[in-house]
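Sat 14:20. Reprocessing the chain from the morning session after the first attempt stalled halfway. Input below, unchanged.
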Amino acid sequence: MDVEQLINDWRNSVSAYAKAKADTEYLREFRKSKKAILIGRAAEEGLKTGQERESYAYAHNEYTELLMALRIAIEQSEELRWRMTIAQERIGIWRTTQANGRKEQGHYGA
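Finished this time. Tokens:
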């Protein structure tokens, strides 16, 4: 196990994870704005009730595209998060192996 490579992979994933996480949060918040914009547009098109306007917003192509972008952002964020978690665990295993080796050497006076 090349611990230096693991550490480098983990370190290189940090900024990508931060960006993916920020994109996810931005899209979650923007979803609310997009819904409000589309409800306003529905009102301009003559839809009268709140239910009609909300249905228009949820069914609108722009809203469903935003949901797809949110899905992709969440997928990327989670993939990076788990990649980093796996690297951390592998580094932990490496540390334990190193500690066990030192302890074993101590028993033999090496």
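The chain has one domain: 3-107.
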